[in-house]
Amino acid sequence: MPTTPVQGDLGRNALRGFDLVQTDLSVRRSFSIEKGLRLVFRADLFNALNHPNFASPVAIIGSGLFGISTGTTANSEVGGGAFGLNSIFNVGGPRAAQLSMKLEF
Fold first, then answer.
1. Does the pTM of the predicted model rise above 0.70?
2. Helix, strand and coil percent figures for the chain, each rounded to 5
3. Where do the structural domains in the chain lie, given as residue ranges?
């Protein structure tokens, strides 16, 4: 009597991917130059702690890489890397800083 192959008895959602951890910081300072004239300085840090965010592990059971993450979230479909964007501008990308100054009158 032939038996039907099964993949196992592991429960649903037993294998999960990695957490996405990213700390963004922003600081702004305003300087009054004279009446009605103000200079605003702003600094933004994205992924300030430079925490690595790994993509989901390979889920193909027959693959030799099963259960291993082969990339980062910024370069995967989740982070937007599949759309051709630079990984700096995606969720989970490397640390990036942005400085700006604005003159208000």
1. no
2. 10, 30, 60
3. 25-104
Whether residue 24 contacts residue 48, with contact meaning beta carbons closer than 8 Å, is answered with yes
pLDDT along the chain (105 residues), means of 10: 67 78 94 94 93 83 83 68 62 86 95
Give me the residue label for tokens 């994205």.
46
Buried b / exposed e over 13-41, threshold 16 CB at 10 Å, is: eeeeeeeeebeeeeeeeeeeeeeeeeeee
Number of neighbours of residue 79 by Cβ within 10 angstroms = 22
Is residue 95 within 8 A of residue 45, CB to CB? The reply is yes
- Between CA 103 and CA 13 the distance in angstroms is 53
- Give the three-state DSSP class for 51: coil
Distance CA 9, CA 41 (A): 58
Cα–Cα nearest to 102, from 45, 37, 44 = 37
